[in-house]
C-alpha cells in the first residue's frame, strides 16, 4: 500500500520490516536515514496533526546485525542518539522477545526542537518503542507538545503496531483410502472395457462429489 492511496485506520506495513501500524490520518514518508541511526536504508512514516505526532520507521543495516546487539548496548545506543539530539530519555525498559528479537521502550522529552517537522511542538514528550531483529530495527514513536497532545490518539496508534505473521501453507490432503480404492477399481473396470466412457465419467463424478 502506497502513502498516496492509504486509507486512514487501515494496517500499513512499514518498509521491509514485518510490522504494520494504523495511522488515523494522512501519512507523510521519507527514506532519509537519520544521523547516527546505524542504518544504511530507512523508511519513516509520520502523521502530524495539531499538537500530536505519530511515527513509525524501519531502519536496516547491510552489515550490522541488530538482533545480536546485547540488550545493554542497545539501550546505550538509544541513550547516545537521544543525548546527541538534546533529548532527555527516561523509563528505559528492555524486553527479550526470543526469536523475534528484543524490544526497548523509553520516554523522550525535550524543552525545544531546533529544526525539523517537530520544531513547533516544543516542549515535547514522546513515548517510543524499538524492536531489534536481524539486520533491522522497527520503531514506533508517538506524543507531541507536552500537556497538549491527544493521549488517546497516541495510545491507539502505539497499540496498533502488529507483527505480520506468515500465512500458513494450506495443504491439499490426499483422498481418503476408501475413495482412492473405489477410484482405482472404477479405472480398472474402464481399462478392461467393462464400462463405457459415459458410465466411467458418471461414476467417477459421483465418487468425488461424495467427498
Terminal CA distance: 40 Å
By CATH, the architecture of the largest domain is named 3-Layer(aba) Sandwich
Helix content: 10-25%
Mean pLDDT across the residues is: 82
SSE ordering: EEEEEHEEEEHEHH
CATH class of the largest domain, named Alpha Beta
What does this structure look like?
- With 211 residues, the protein is an alpha+beta fold.
- It folds into two domains: 3-163, Mog1/PsbP, alpha/beta/alpha sandwich (Protein Transport Mog1p, Chain A), CATH 3.40.1000; 177-209.
- The protein has four helices and ten strands.
- The longest helix has 15 residues, at 177-191.
- The radius of gyration is 27 Å and the shape is elongated.
- The two termini are 40 Å apart.
Write the layout of secondary structure elements.
Elements: E1 11-13, E2 19-22, E3 28-30, E4 41-49, E5 52-60, H1 71-84, E6 88-96, E7 102-110, E8 124-133, E9 136-145, H2 151-160, E10 162-163, H3 177-191, H4 197-209
Antiparallel strand pairs: 1-2, 2-10, 3-4, 4-5, 5-9, 6-7, 7-8, 8-9
